[in-house]
Specification:
Strand 9 and strand 10 form a beta hairpin. This protein has two helices and eleven strands. It is mostly beta strands.
Length: about 180
């Protein structure tokens, strides 16, 4: 008789209770003039929004540094729980859950030295998170973009909207599936 899957054998929304933190999408220092907004929706193979995914972003600072800002994530001195960012330092890291409509938003600074922001997707049914890139411009000389046909390439290009805002939808499978990267 087969046994029911245990949490180590299936992926559920367990991470939603511990990983998101206040201000996880506020990567840019508060009020910074160069802030951009990257947002989008996560869709499943049937084209339905995924309301319980988690999106992480990583990127270099505008000056191309990749060192981050140690100590910028504040903790409650009594409980040790994360209470949010300090609002001043740029770390290059964001983490946000999708809302009930599958929407997510990160406010950050333009990445230095590259034309993309690295993205990881955690979602129910995924045994391993997925990696992709959100290109803010279609970079002609980029090796990854150059290796893809036009249809696949378009899944990596964020659409420019008004006021320094970019939309990057993520399709987990099916028609228009986002290109995901594999690291060995």
């Amino acid at each position: 008789m087969p046994h029911a899957p245990t949490p180590s054998q299936t992926v559920g929304p367990f991470y939603g209770y511990a990983l998101p933190f206040p201000g996880g999408g506020e990567v840019a220092p508060a009020g910074h003039a160069d802030t951009i907004t990257l947002h989008g929706y996560v869709f499943d193979g049937a084209g339905q929004p995924v309301p319980d995914a988690l999106i992480e972003t990583w990127q270099p600072a505008p000056d191309r540094s990749r060192t981050g800002a140690p100590g910028s994530l504040r903790h409650d001195p009594v409980t040790g729980r994360v209470i949010g960012r300090d609002g001043v330092a740029f770390t290059g890291f964001g983490r946000v859950p999708t809302d009930a409509d599958g929407h997510w938003t990160v406010r950050t600074l333009p990445p230095g030295g590259v034309s993309y922001i690295s993205v990881a997707v955690f979602a129910r049914g995924l045994l391993h998170h997925l990696y992709t890139r959100a290109y803010l411009v279609d970079e002609p000389g980029d090796a990854l973009l150059g290796s893809l046909d036009a249809e696949r390439r378009s899944t990596l290009i964020a659409r420019s909207e008004q006021d320094r805002t970019y939309r990057f939808d993520i399709r987990l499978q099916g028609d228009g599936e986002t290109v995901f990267l594999e690291f060995a």
